[in-house]
Amino acid sequence: MFPLSENALTIRFSNEISDEAHERVQKLTRLLRCEAMEGIIDIVPAFSSVTVYYNPLVLGTYEQASRDISEKVEGMERAASALAGRTVVIPVCYGGEFGPDLLEVAQYHGITEEEVIRLHSAGTYKVYMIGFAPGFAYLGGLPSQLATPRRAVPRLLVPEGSVGIADRQTGVYPLATPGGWQIIGKTPLSLFCAERQPPSLLQAGDVVQFHPMTEKEYRMWKNNGDFCS
Amino acid sequence: MGIFVLDGGFFTTVQDLGRWGVQKDGVPVSGVMDDFASRLANFLVGNEANEAVLEITMLGPTLRFEIGTVVAICGGEFSGKLNDQSVPLWQPFMVQPGDILAIGACRIGYRGYVAVSGGLHVPLLMNSRSTYTKAAIGGFYGRPLQKDDELSLRPAPCLPEWQPSWGIAFSIRQYINSQEKVIRAVEGPDFHTFTKESIEHFFTEVYEVTTQSDRMGYRLRGQKLQRSVDQEIVSEAVTFGTVQVPASGDPIVLMADRQTTGGYPRIAQVLAVDLPILAQARPGDRIRFQPSSWQEAQRLYIQREREMMYSRAIIRQKWREINGANRFKL
Does the keyword ATP-binding apply (chain B) (predicted)? Predict the structure, then answer.
């Protein structure tokens, strides 16, 4: 545990990314959120650490606040294992105009486009962390056969909902931004919606599965309006 | 009915003290850059610290008030004119319906805060009125103000009959003036992974605020900083005032619109009480970091918060004197 600023401290379980550290991060995050300790103003779970923002006028200085939170961590260690995260199925229309790099990814690995789709949608992915941008999930578990380097020249604008691969990572762009990921498809779901509670569709600890959909299904979904549901 | 924008100025956004509680969703905290000036501006017009204010940058907006109210401008030394009459800074002043407030250039400092009695009325989004322009969320339609925008106001707590003659003491505004700004900082989580020379450079050399600096972060230029170990950093939370060093070696100080998490090594953390000094630095300004301790940082933080509560109490007492004499209710 160490101070991050006058009103934040970080509890780090490991210096590496591991399932064990991830599970402890999830357990502590749930515990702190459920207890709604007075004076805690924000909790940020990351790959292998949890950062707690607090009001020093309520919880005291770092020395006092860290003592209170240490007790919670000890209580957590004694508690039963973490609850399994939700499973969120994300429908994806692969290839075509929605996935302009699908062919390139297939050619890079010497397999067919169908094989890329099959591998990508067969995997289960763990949401390690939300960060970088509103609603952006860092997903672990991309099959190594699909690991592909980023594009040499990043695109000026990747549309929101685009599903991409960058090295050993896969993910969905929640908002339209410039980006260098290999784009293999697009989902009609809104990964981030400011008016929704919670605003991010995915939460740390969730398990994600991608499910292929046709372009017709994609259009139907969009026309029926998944605005912020 | 509220405020009609005749000119938006250089970069004017609606901000409060930030959007807390949704960093787990990847939503940046945002909020005012200089919370010292913005909180005092709110107190001066009878508001609580967290009411939405206008954060103005370098060149202020021109506003027409549709209703009478009380306004205060705190922060950098902006020139302000109410119907061609100069208005004081760091002091509440009254406006009448139809009055035009033209805020000009900032002579010293970089950012100012325009507080209006009652606060600006924009929808609460994720429990905050702050604008985060990069994702176009919050504040006034997620963007800076433009000509012809119309802002609503919340009900005003203080509407006196005569102009108050008091304001914030001149000595308290000195933090904006310094030519070479001294910013105190404590060791960050990755401090010891930097070379001895780099640590020495960081705390002795002058760094210049570059033009690639904005509400998200201040990119600095000076002696480059290097690490002695090339240990991979696992992304975790970063905060206002975190000094991170990407591979280029040029430090970046994260500011109000920072991302929630980061993966660059963090050499230092700026003291919360010195963040307003940094927020008032403009591109081209020179800063120097001075080593401090967590003990000092926390002591100064609590002292600052107490001063704020004290200022709020004194200003409320002042308002009670005016309004009591007039049988107005606070």
Answer: yes
In B, minimum Cα distance to A205 occurs at B24
Averaged confidence pLDDT in chain B: 94
Collect all residues of chain A within an 8 Å Cβ-Cβ radius of residue B237: 4, 8, 10, 44, 46, 49, 51
Chain A from 56 to 115: CB within 8 A of any B CB: 56-57, 61-62
Q: What is the bridge-based pairing of β-strands B62-65 and B85-86?
A: unpaired
Across the interface, whether the CB atoms of B269 and A57 are under 8 A apart is answered no
Q: Tens of pLDDT along A49-65?
A: 999 999 999 999 999 99
CATH architecture of A2-78: 2-Layer Sandwich (3.30)
Q: Is B312 helix (H, G, I), strand (E, B) or coil?
A: helix
Nearest to A6 among B23, B137, B272 (CB): B272
| A141 torsion bin: left (phi>0), alpha (psi -120 to 50), beta (else) | left
Label residue A45 by pLDDT band (50, 70, 90).
very high
- Interface A-B, measured as beta-carbon pairs within 8 A, has a size of 130
Q: Does A42 touch chain B (CB under 8 A)?
A: yes
How far is B224 from chain A, CA to nearest CA, in Å? 23
Q: Which among A144, A132, A199 has a CA at the least distance from the CA of A172?
A: A132
Contact A136 B26 (CB under 8 A): yes
Q: How far is CA B246 from the centre of its chain?
A: 25
Q: Which domains occur in chain B, in start order?
A: 2-167+311-325 (no CATH), 180-292 (2.40.100.10)
The pLDDT of residue B324 is: 67
* Superfamily the domain A87-223 falls into: Cyclophilin-like (2.40.100.10)
Q: Which of the four pLDDT bands, split at 50, 70 and 90, describes residue A229?
A: very low
DSSP codes, B223-286: S---BSS-PPPPPEE--TTEEE--TT---EEE-TT--SEE-S-EEEEE-GGGHHHHHT--TT-E
Looking at beta carbons, which residues of chain B come within 8 Å of A45? 24
Q: What is the pLDDT of residue A181?
A: 93
* Residue A201 CB coordination number (10 Å): 22
Asked if A203 and B37 count as a contact pair (C-beta separation under 8 A), the reply is no
Domain with CATH 3.30.1360.40 in chain A: 2-78
Reply yes or no on whether the pLDDT at A113 is more than 60: yes
DSSP strand pairing (B69-75 vs B111-116): antiparallel
Task: Judge: B23–A42 Cβ closer than 8 Å, yes or no.
Answer: yes
pLDDT average, residue stretch A223-228: 67
- B84–chain A nearest CA distance, Å: 41
pTM equals 0.93
Please name the member of B21, B240, B259 whose beta carbon is closest to the beta carbon of A42. Answer: B21
Q: What tens digit of pLDDT does each residue of A186-218 get?
A: 999 999 999 999 999 999 999 999 999 999 999
Say whether pLDDT at A73 is over 60.
Answer: yes
Residue of A nearest to B304 (CA): A57
